[in-house]
Write a structure and sequence with these properties.
Length: 426
């Protein structure tokens, strides 16, 4: 069975999964829409009380059984394998539209390198989004087919340090901008009245799970390749720290630019692809910044996409006995088909369903409701159906810490997620 070469590469891979479009594009956008700094309070609470305990549980289960996601569900309960496949399906559906956005980031990286300024509306009314989506599927599939050591490890080892280097460089630059202060004011000054709105809390909890890649079996799969002596709770804290850092730095960069160039802070989904390129067009050395920014977005997106791919590759390999190459090829073909409607919804075809673009529908349905539901299934299966000894044996937490993690995963997480799933469906 495959193993990470060191704990460091495991942490890099898990940070690679966590830090993605969710940090650099979704986080500033959600902060902008939910009234700035006040949103950070429910967000931190959701990260610390809900996402981190589930992250620790997932890693413990992964290392304990050293199995793929479907087999792990099967070990929790004989009839639960089918639930494992359901979670795999949700992950696959999320991946299918995530790769469309990954394609956009690649396209804008190419445009910046070529020095051509292409507006988002021109881009999304051509067939280019489909072509770049197919390239993203291919790249993700090929890396997964190379395996844990030759594929995933090699990519994350150079891309994750690179991601943080760019983030740091862009942050230092953004501090020098005149819009830094008003930007930070908007970003960090709390508007406490927002805290009485349930939708702010729902957005925060959803974003915490999405951003930390928790509740979809990514950490069960990555944890199954972890060496026996690696400290799980400490790894979880390191991964969470870097994920929060990436989100905060991204927020600083984005809002400094937005306020320096007088752009709209709550621009919604087009923030990264139409608002920021306009800022880059106006500043000196804008092309360099634009290349750096889109290289950052693409690297972050790719390493997250790879982790979702690996959940499915490992499940198919383990359950059907297929080789890694065949499992990856099969998933690439499947993804090209499932993701095509999302890709086409932002193309010259403008594919819509009852007036909404398919990609936006996917983000709300599987990306938000589906993810909460899958996190609910993971929390219930691995906390209610298996004994606490697995958690205790793998984590070596003190008695008090153990009972905190254990009660949060047993009661708080299912209650919170159930409420979100019901609220979202209604
Ligand atoms: N955490 C990733 C992001 O922030 C998205 C992701 C979710 C990746 C779930 C893997 C699993 O963009």
């Amino acid at each position: 069975m495959e193993r990470w070469s060191s704990r460091l590469v495991f942490i890099l891979a898990a940070i690679g999964s966590a830090v993605g479009i969710g940090n650099i594009w979704r986080f500033p956008m959600i902060v902008g829409q939910n009234g700035g700094g006040a949103y950070l309070i429910p967000y931190f609470l959701a990260v610390v009380c809900l996402a981190v305990p589930l992250m620790i549980l997932e890693m413990a289960v992964g290392r304990h059984w050293r199995s793929n996601l479907v087999a792990s569900f099967g070990l929790a309960g004989r009839k639960l394998e089918v639930v494992g496949w359901l979670v795999c399906l949700i992950v696959l559906l999320i991946l299918s539209y995530y790769l469309v956005i990954t394609g956009w980031t690649l396209a804008y990286l190419v445009f910046s390198l070529l020095g051509s300024s292409v507006s988002f509306s021109a881009f999304s009314s051509s067939l280019q989004p489909v072509i770049y989506f197919m390239i993203s599927v291919l790249v993700t599939g090929v890396i997964a087919s190379l395996g844990v050591n030759m594929g995933i490890e090699r990519i994350v080892s150079f891309m994750i340090p690179f991601v943080f280097l760019i983030l740091l460089a862009l942050t230092l630059f953004s501090i020098s901008l005149p819009g830094f202060r008003p930007g930070m004011d908007f970003f960090l000054r709390p508007d406490y009245s927002m805290l009485s709105r349930p939708e702010v809390w729902i957005a925060a909890i959803g974003q915490a799970f999405f951003s930390l890649s928790v509740g979809m079996g990514v950490l069960i799969t990555y944890g199954s390749y972890l060496k026996a002596d690696a400290d799980i709770p400490q790894s979880a804290l390191i991964i969470t720290f870097f994920d929060l850092l990436a989100s905060m730095l991204a927020g600083m960069i984005v809002f400094s630019l937005v306020f320096t160039f007088g752009l709209e802070p709550a621009a919604g989904a087009e923030l990264a692809f139409s608002t920021l390129p306009r800022a880059f067009g106006l500043m000196p050395y804008g092309r360099v910044f634009s290349v750096l920014f889109f290289a950052l977005l693409f690297s972050a997106a790719l390493t997250s996409a790879i982790s979702m791919m690996e959940v499915n590759v490992a499940a198919i390999m383990g359950q059907s006995g297929a080789s890694r190459k065949r499992a990856s090829l099969f998933l690439m073909i499947l993804l090209a088909g499932i993701g095509a409607p999302s890709a086409l919804s932002y193309s010259s075809l403008d594919l819509r369903f009852y007036g909404s673009r398919i990609l936006d529908l996917m983000d709300v349905s599987v990306g938000t409701v589906g993810l909460s539901f899958s996190a609910l299934l993971v929390a219930i299966a691995f906390r209610w159906f298996i004994s606490n000894d697995v958690l205790a044996g793998e984590t070596h937490l003190s008695r008090r810490q153990l009972s905190a993690v254990s009660n949060l995963t047993k009661y708080a997480i299912p209650i919170a997620l159930l409420m979100i799933t019901v609220a979202m469906i209604m």
